[in-house]
Specification:
globular, 84 residues, Arc Repressor Mutant, subunit A, mainly alpha, 3-stranded antiparallel β-sheet
Amino acid sequence: MSSILMNRTRSRIIRFLLRNGPSTCSQIGSELHAAPSNIRRQLGLLLDAGLVQRSSTQFSVCAEQVLHHAGDLEASFQVIVMPP
């Protein structure tokens, strides 16, 4: 899994998928009031990072992967921003 910095849109996409289950790009964009091109770009980054999976036209997220990634982000934040 590659590293990815979380931005507001990616965070909202993950929360949407956790709440609603597998969804299309159009469903996500409609609910988040975001341009389809922006949603597609953000989903691509989330796919590359291993946080989102795609099956035909729907995207889904695995809660365990999100939790694992959140732990990595927290650890890197503490090392970079808050050194001992």
